[in-house]
């Protein structure tokens, strides 16, 4: 079986974990946490980075920092992971879903302004598949209406929009290092703070609502409970594994782009014939090869293609069920909306195996099986 995803070790992950154990600091905010944050800040030109246990944690912290109150509206795409909405719903926020664009699967920036009301507080662009949203337009709208922007860059680490790294453009950004992402640590994430006014409070929220970080820096003589918060720190074991991955970031990025390009070149014939649709990368964006997906004619074709590939020991999957169609959507008081592009594309999108250790011959096999499904190959 060619799996859809496979975690991998690329460098000194196990060695660094042993160092963390021997160093006697496993709970977080140890040497490897500091190394990861410094690396991210230096590499991606970030003002402040806080390593957390997941991108979900980063989004929840962002919602607190945005001071979301019951009834506040948050604009986002419906085609995203549940954490994008959950983080704000937990604070009483109301997700306002906006349709996506055919060519990128990202929120349609031209439809955001019409969704703004007096209750709107935040815009959450999600950089699908590591391809940036139109951040110039989004930041312009946010400035016009005095809104905050939280980038859900879970899939966008090391990708750029007009020479700016995703996550570094909005007021806040959120990264994921889940085992399905480009740089992995099992679970893991980071909150990116690009606005000075949020830095001090973010440290407090991350430390269960205490000023413990200031205490360890000698800024206060004791630490105590000063704000709301939770246990958002990543363990030092997570940080140790992640740091080994970050050290090999260029190698990983290069390999993923080769995988992506192999798929694209091999399947372009099917795109040219109108049998499938391949991703489109805008000229002002640099993607990171996070995933390879294609869209087919309809949901029935997708189901048949998934079954066909499974018979040939290839695990392919579809992606999100749109949040606005979920049972929770009504409970979260979201506006009833029709999102025709989201609804259409979510039924037709198919993701192919894409991970660091996948062999080129396996990619070629997948390509040939897809061609066989469409009658463009004569043998199995």
Question: What layout of secondary structure does this protein have?
Answer:
Elements: H1 13-23, H2 31-44, E1 48-52, H3 55-65, E2 73-77, H4 82-89, E3 94-98, E4 120-123, H5 135-145, E5 148-152, E6 160-161, E7 164-165, E8 172-176, E9 189-193, H6 199-206, H7 212-216, H8 236-247, H9 249-272, E10 285-286, E11 292-295, H10 299-311, H11 327-331, H12 340-346, E12 349-352, H13 360-373
Parallel strand pairs: 2-3, 2-4, 4-5, 5-8
Antiparallel strand pairs: 1-9, 6-7, 6-10, 8-9, 11-12
Helix pairs in contact: 1-8, 2-8, 3-4, 3-6, 9-13
Tags for this model:
globular, Aspartate Aminotransferase, domain 1, Aspartate Aminotransferase, domain 2, 13% strand, three-stranded antiparallel β-sheet, 2 domains, alpha/beta, 380 residues
**The number of domains:** 2
Q: What share of residues is helical?
A: 25-40%
Stretches where pLDDT is under 50 for at least 5 consecutive residues are: none
The CATH architecture term of the largest domain is 3-Layer(aba) Sandwich
At the first level of CATH, what is the class of the largest domain?
Alpha Beta
CATH H-level superfamily title of the largest domain: Type I PLP-dependent aspartate aminotransferase-like (Major domain)
Whole-number radius of gyration? 21 Å
Biggest beta sheet summary = 7 strands, mixed
Give the CATH topology of the largest domain.
Aspartate Aminotransferase, domain 2
Mean pLDDT: 95
Order of helices and strands: HHEHEHEEHEEEEEHHHHEEHHHEH
Strand arrangement, major sheet: 1-9-8-5-4-2-3
């Amino acid at each position: 079986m060619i799996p859809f995803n496979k975690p991998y070790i690329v460098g000194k992950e196990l060695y660094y974990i042993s160092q963390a154990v021997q160093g006697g600091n496993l709970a977080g905010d140890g040497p490897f946490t500091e190394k990861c944050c410094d690396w991210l800040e230096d590499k991606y030109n970030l003002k402040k980075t806080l390593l957390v246990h997941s991108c979900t944690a980063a989004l929840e912290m962002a919602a607190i920092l945005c001071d979301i109150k019951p009834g506040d509206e948050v604009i986002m795409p419906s085609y995203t992971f549940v954490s994008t909405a959950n983080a704000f719903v937990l604070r009483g926020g109301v997700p306002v879903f906006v349709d996506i664009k055919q060519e990128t699967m990202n929120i349609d920036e031209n439809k955001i302004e019409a969704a703004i009301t007096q209750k709107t507080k935040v815009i959450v662009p999600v950089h699908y598949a590591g391809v940036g949203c139109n951040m110039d337009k989004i930041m312009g709208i946010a400035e016009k209406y005095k809104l905050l922007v939280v980038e859900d860059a879970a899939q966008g680490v090391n990708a750029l929009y007009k020479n700016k790294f995703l996550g570094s453009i909005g007021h806040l950004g959120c990264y994921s290092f889940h085992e399905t992402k480009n740089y992995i640590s099992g679970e893991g994430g980071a909150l990116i703070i690009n606005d000075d006014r949020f830095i001090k409070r973010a440290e407090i929220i991350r430390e269960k609502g205490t000023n413990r970080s200031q205490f360890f820096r000698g800024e206060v003589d004791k630490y105590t409970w000063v704000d709301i918060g939770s246990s958002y720190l990543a363990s030092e074991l997570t940080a140790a594994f992640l740091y080994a991955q970050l050290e090999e970031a260029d190698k990983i990025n290069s390999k993923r782009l080769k995988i992506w390009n192999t798929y694209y070149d091999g399947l372009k014939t099917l795109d040219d014939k109108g049998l499938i649709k391949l991703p489109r990368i805008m000229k002002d964006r640099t993607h990171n090869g996070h995933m390879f997906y294609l869209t087919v004619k309809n949901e029935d074709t997708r189901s048949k293609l998934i079954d066909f590939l499974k018979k040939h020991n290839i695990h392919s999957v579809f992606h999100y069920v749109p949040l606005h169609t979920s049972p929770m959507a009504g409970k979260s008081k979201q506006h009833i909306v029709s999102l025709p592009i989201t609804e259409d594309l979510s039924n037709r999108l198919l993701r192919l195996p894409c991970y660091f250790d996948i062999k080129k011959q396996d990619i070629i096999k997948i390509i040939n099986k897809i061609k066989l499904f469409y009658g463009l190959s004569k043998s199995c």
